[in-house]
Structures are given as C-alpha cells and as structure tokens.
Amino acid sequence: MKKSASCFLAALVAVGMMSTAASADVKKGQKAYLKTCKNCHGTGTKGAAMHTQDEWDDLFANGAEKIIKAHANDKSAAYFNGEAFKMQSQDLRDFLFEYGSDSGNVPSCG
C-alpha cells in the first residue's frame, strides 16, 4: 500500500514537472516586452500594471485577438500580425499576467 502511494506521488510530481516545462516563460516574456513594447508602454512595471490579471487573460484569449485588434492601427501592427508575436505571445502573456496590476508582484525590469 505504501509503495503504490509513493509511486502515485512520484507520478504526480513528474506530470507537474512536465507541465511546467511545457508552459510559457515569464523571463522570455519580459525580454519580449522590453524589446517590443517598452517604447510605447514604458517599463515592464508600468506596462504590466495597465491591466489586471483577468484583463490580461481576456486580451490574450482566442489567439490574442483583442490585443492584436487594439494594435491594428498603430506602428506595432506589423509585429502583432507577424510570426514573432505568434511565437512570443504566450511568454508575453505570462509576463504581463504575472505582474498585472492586481498581482502584488513587481518585475525586475521596472
């Protein structure tokens, strides 16, 4: 009985580690923000605090359609409609979510 419980816990830990590895990366999102968003939205602290965590989730839902639409008529439209954003969007979302205005967290870049 103890052995099966140990195996079950080990399996849960392994699954947890794999799901963490498959998730987006806050640090990569921070780098993407600094490279692509800082000029318009300011430091990471200021930019992430523009919205709550729920609002960031909403903006990045459905392939980030709302954030893409919000930038459709400005100088960053090419980025938001391009491959770079598609590749970075989950990391960028995780960074902005992690430091959203209601998170209580402050990024090191701002």
Description:
The longest helix is centred in the N-terminal third of the chain and has 21 residues, at 2-22. This protein starts with a helix and ends in a 12-residue tail after the last helix. α2 packs across α7 (83-98) and α5 packs antiparallel against α7 (83-98). It is 72% helix and 0% strand. The chain contains seven helices and no strands. It is mainly alpha-helical.
Q: How many distinct beta strands?
A: 0
Extract low-pLDDT stretches.
Answer: 5-21
Tell me the series of helices and strands, N- to C-terminal: HHHHHHH
Give the biggest beta sheet.
none
Structural class: mainly alpha
Please count the helical segments: 7
How far apart are the termini?
52 Å
Shape: globular
Q: Could you report the average pLDDT, rounded to the nearest whole number? A: 84
Helix proportion of residues, in percent? over 70%
Rg of Cα set: 17 Å
Strand content bin: under 5%
Itemize the secondary structure elements and their pairings.
Elements: H1 2-22, H2 26-36, H3 38-41, H4 44-48, H5 53-70, H6 77-80, H7 83-98
Helix pairs in contact: 2-7, 5-7
